[in-house]
Design brief:
about 180 residues; alpha+beta; 5 helices; binds coenzyme A; GNAT family N-acetyltransferase; Acyl_CoA_acyltransferase; GNAT_dom
């Protein structure tokens, strides 16, 4: 469960990633809907996530996104079961100081190609709060389009989707992974 893009390496999130995880999940600018208040809470959240991942089918889960040049974890991306069994859900959370450099787009495009080619996903979806403009822009850069609406954790979300044919036709597809 790894993939590589030109600047990034994505590999399974591990319990030893707790420091980097807290840097991301403890930051209210990133986890705006409920950042972890301290390192202990982040450690519990990471444990909870890793327990969920253990129950997911092979190839799905949470990836730590490592900047190859520095070896530093700059974010995480998620490929997980969704409420509709034929879809898989995408997620992304990046350290605040990594924003604006195209890392989230690069990691997510790599994840899209990984999902369709290596996990044989049928369709990818993302639930996004419409006011989350950076996430909406990221979804648009992936070529995702709105298929509906859904209330999640009391917040209205738009549901965006991308199928394999659409992804394969995107100009970024051939370069999405370093070694497909
Ligand atoms: C959503 C999130 C991952 C997007 O991060 P981001 O930094 O805006 O996205 P990217 O890393 O793809 O960067 C894109 C920006 O970098 C710029 N950029 C700079 N260098 C670039 C490069 N080499 N390649 C591509 N884009 C580049 C782009 O122009 C773009 O800027 P623009 O939107 O002003 O045009 C981030 O805001 C985040 O972690 N948010 C909080 C978590 C969250 O809300 N998750 C989703 C819950 S549903």
């Amino acid at each position: 469960m790894t993939f590589e893009t030109s600047r990034l390496l994505a590999r399974p999130l591990e319990v030893s990633d707790q420091g980097a995880f807290h840097r991301i999940w403890g930051d209210p600018r990133v986890i705006w809907w409920g950042a972890m208040p301290d390192a202990a809470a982040s450690a519990r959240k990471l444990d909870e996530i890793l327990e969920r991942v253990r129950n997911m089918p092979a190839g799905q889960g949470w990836f730590a996104v490592v900047e190859k040049a520095s070896g530093v974890i700059i974010g995480d991306v998620v490929l997980a079961p969704y409420i509709t069994a034929s879809d898989l859900e995408l997620g992304w959370h990046f350290a605040f100081d990594s924003w604006g450099q195209g890392y989230a787009t690069e990691a997510s495009r790599g994840l899209v190609r990984y999902a369709f080619e290596r996990v044989n996903a049928h369709r990818l979806v993302a639930d996004i709060v419409p006011g989350n403009l950076l996430s909406m822009r990221l979804a648009a850069r992936l070529g995702m389009h709105r298929i509906g609406d859904r209330v999640r954790a009391t917040l209205p979300h738009v549901v965006l989707a991308l199928d394999r044919g659409e992804a394969e036709a995107a100009p970024w597809w051939p370069d999405a992974l370093v070694s497909p």
